[in-house]
């Protein structure tokens, strides 16, 4: 617990804002989370959680006396010593980050002279801090410090990542401000790394770009393994034992998605382009990931021929297990491509919240994997949900019209699946 209770205002009740606010309350602070979505605030006030994040609901219930959810700006800022900016920064038409929500929050702080600091948690381009500093000065907050405090939480384990991080990065040009932000994390045991604002802004983008690079590298090696008869799982497993490299994220698959890797990789590439630099490595990382999803469709065509009229089951829709998030999910590309080929798409996922729009409005969603598989010409493992390991695959092979399976996550045992009668394909395995 923090040595001293602080009053904190958090702007944005999305994944990052909600986890930030609730975890700060868990650390002993009094937190007001403000959002402009009335339904989201209503749900939170009722003690419900509008997103799926393990442990978050229990933490909200445990800290209800220290948590306030509101639409009202004045209520959020009442007595607040620090304001966290946790709003979305989606790509704009030009490819740059859309910072309109960020500037809306900054402008709304005008007159809040009691604020000691404004902390940017949203992922923003390098150089945003200088603009934010100027905007705060223009709003009359010359005495309010500005800091960058990037988040490194992964959906599905965001609470644990916040409370037990690898590091806490604080970018601030004022050492006192950096120490104040660090004190808000009292109770968390982790290295606190302080630096200038621009460097802190770069850390988040660079971290995600490196993780994305490891995945794309694994997928490129997997393709080479397929072409040469090597086994990518064996190869990459041995490569990852090198202490200089590590096994984490060095796994082949159907490609990365979610709210961070695609957006942050593109944002970093766009940032480089804006400085007159074309980043060849980063561009290749993005290209490999885009191709990977389409290779799955080609494998189905190579096996089935024309996909028109075929029934294809997508097993898993969320971009990864443990979340309901569909942002940049590989399943969206797969469903779109299958529909374009004339296939009929059936799908299953235990949590995914699909938008009421294409391609999902043209697919059929089933309550169980077995229902999705029955009568299918082929299936694709898209998300590595643990439930898929528990399927009676021998029976599923009998119930499918054609027992063809592309395992996009290398979740299942190849030899066993072939013994069950499947034409089984995976990523980088013979």
Describe the structure.
The protein has 430 residues and is of the alpha/beta class. The chain folds into two domains: 7-195, NAD(P)-binding Rossmann-like Domain (Rossmann fold); 229-426, NAD(P)-binding Rossmann-like Domain (Rossmann fold, 3-Layer(aba) Sandwich). It has helices at 15-26, 38-45, 56-62, 73-77, 100-108, 128-138, 158-163, 175-183, 197-228, 232-240, 261-274, 280-304, 330-340, 369-373, 393-399, 414-419; strands at 7-11, 30-34, 67-70, 82-85, 117-120, 145-148, 168-172, 192-195, 311-315, 344-348, 364-365, 378-381, 404-407, 423-426. The strands form two sheets. It has an eight-stranded mixed sheet, with helices on both faces. It has a six-stranded parallel sheet with strand order 11-10-9-12-13-14. The radius of gyration is 23 Å and the shape is elongated.
Give a nutshell description of this structure.
By secondary structure, the chain is of the alpha/beta class. Helix content is 41%, strand content 14%.
Layout of helices and strands:
Elements: E1 7-11, H1 15-26, E2 30-34, H2 38-45, H3 56-62, E3 67-70, H4 73-77, E4 82-85, H5 100-108, E5 117-120, H6 128-138, E6 145-148, H7 158-163, E7 168-172, H8 175-183, E8 192-195, H9 197-228, H10 232-240, H11 261-274, H12 280-304, E9 311-315, H13 330-340, E10 344-348, E11 364-365, H14 369-373, E12 378-381, H15 393-399, E13 404-407, H16 414-419, E14 423-426
Parallel strand pairs: 1-2, 1-4, 2-3, 4-5, 5-6, 7-8, 9-10, 9-12, 10-11, 12-13, 13-14
Antiparallel strand pairs: 6-7
């Amino acid at each position: 617990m923090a040595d001293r209770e602080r009053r904190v205002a958090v702007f944005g009740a999305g994944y990052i804002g909600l986890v930030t606010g609730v975890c700060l309350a868990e650390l002993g602070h009094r937190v007001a989370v403000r959002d402009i979505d009335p339904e989201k605030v209503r749900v939170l006030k009722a003690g419900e959680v509008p997103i799926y994040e393990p442990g978050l609901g229990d933490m909200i219930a445990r800290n209800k006396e220290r948590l306030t959810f509101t639409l009202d700006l004045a209520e959020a800022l009442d007595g607040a010593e620090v304001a966290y900016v946790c709003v979305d920064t989606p790509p704009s038409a030009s490819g740059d980050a859309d910072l309109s929500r960020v500037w809306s929050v900054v402008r709304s702080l005008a007159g809040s002279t009691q604020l000691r600091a404004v902390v940017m948690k949203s992922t923003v381009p390098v150089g945003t801090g200088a603009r934010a500093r100027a905007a705060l000065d223009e709003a009359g907050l010359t005495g309010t410090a500005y800091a960058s405090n990037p988040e490194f939480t992964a959906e599905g384990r965001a609470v644990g990542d916040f409370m037990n991080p690898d590091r806490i990065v604080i970018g601030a040009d004022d050492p006192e401000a950096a120490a104040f932000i660090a004190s808000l994390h009292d109770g968390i045991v982790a290295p606190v790394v302080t630096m200038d604002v621009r460097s802190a802004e770069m850390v988040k983008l660079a971290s995600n770009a490196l993780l994305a690079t490891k995945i794309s590298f694994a997928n490129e090696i997997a393709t080479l393994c397929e072409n040469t008869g090597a086994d990518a799982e064996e190869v990459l497993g041995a490569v990852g034992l090198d202490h200089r490299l590590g096994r984490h994220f060095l796994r082949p698959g159907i490609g990365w998605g979610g709210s961070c890797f695609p957006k942050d990789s593109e944002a970093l590439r766009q940032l480089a382009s804006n400085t007159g630099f074309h980043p060849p490595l980063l561009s290749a990382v993005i290209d490999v990931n885009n191709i990977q999803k389409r290779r799955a469709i080609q494998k189905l065509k190579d096996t089935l021929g024309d996909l028109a009229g075929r029934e294809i089951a997508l097993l898993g829709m969320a971009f990864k297990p443990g979340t309901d998030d569909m942002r940049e999910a590989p399943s969206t590309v797969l469903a779109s491509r299958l529909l374009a080929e004339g296939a009929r798409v059936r799908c299953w996922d235990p949590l995914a919240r699909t938008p009421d729009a294409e391609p999902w409005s043209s697919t059929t969603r089933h309550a169980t994997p077995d229902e999705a598989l029955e009568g299918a010409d082929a299936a694709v493992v898209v998300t590595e949900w643990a439930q898929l390991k528990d399927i009676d695959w021998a029976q599923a092979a009998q119930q499918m019209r054609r027992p063809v399976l592309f395992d996009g996550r290398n979740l299942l045992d190849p030899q066993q699946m072939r013994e069950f009668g499947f034409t089984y394909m995976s990523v980088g395995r013979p």
